[in-house]
User: What shape does this take?
Amino acid sequence: MRYLITGGCGFIGSHLAERLLDDGHAVLLLDDLSTGRFENVAHLEGRAGFAILVASVTEPATVDRCVAECQAVFHLASAVGVRLVVDQPVRTIETIVNGTDVVLRACARYRRPILLTSTSEVYGKSTKVPFVETDDTLIGPTTTRRWAYACAKALDEFLALAHWHESRLPVIVARLFNTVGPRQTGRYGMVIPRFVEQGLAGQPITVYGDGHQTRCFAHVADVVSALVALMDHPHSRGQVFNVGNSEEVSILELAHRVRSLTGGISPIRLVPYSEAYTAGFEDMLRRVPDLTKIRQLIGYQPSRSLDQILADVIAERCDPSRHPAPAPSSLEI
Ligand code: UDP
Assistant: This one.
């Protein structure tokens, strides 16, 4: 099989590309290198069946050509990270909504199966624990920029499911909860790479708010296995699945664990949300996936604990040969 991976040079896309090549498939990565980095996939260049096209997912003619040349599509291209979403809301909305529309239209034209990666953000600030795929979403006001991301991704889901409903286009929606692992950058706000870099540098570990908010972190290798299995399963079509890990940790506890694993000298500094992001910023207090549905369909069981995830991220940061060189500063936000 030849797969198209939009956003293939991103953190998750690069791991997915590697996995598919290891399985004997060919991959075409479509990435505009805005948040994705060529360094993430440099080690794959030269492998049989590997190709990259540097272009935007919002260009219909390019996407049309890519979809025509492949048999199935993993659509990962998206604006990523809370910081980018808050700082560049127009780009966030346009990339998510226009990009997905373009990719879905091309998939509909050629009848290609498509797996769309969505996000646990679509549950919004609902306080229900854990989140089940059919739960109501609770998205905040349009005056709070953060919610544009959740709303845009929810619209992507509606659009994908509408294609399934109207023409039985084989679509699968994977709602990813916090995914971490080697190659993830902290540049767009992601907490684990940021804490690890701060800890290794002996700098203060910056906990936003009071640190009592919790998250569940999944290793990228577990997530990639789930995406591949969902794509392969004939009964996944037209459905939404949570993908993640249900081991819950508070951000303050996470900071303490990272500090002790990285030398134990960093102070832990509480930073008000208004200083970290912007006035009026709303954070989610708890975000726990109910994984019953995906477990029942594909037998999904995350195999890596938070401690293993942290060990893996720290090992990569300590080994420069495994850590991609920084991108040019023009990509900084
Ligand atoms: N966070 C933090 N310090 C940082 C970056 C993030 O305390 O330097 C917090 C953030 O406010 C959130 C959690 O860590 O409560 C996870 O943030 P991330 O941006 O990784 O993902 P989110 O789940 O918010 O999308």
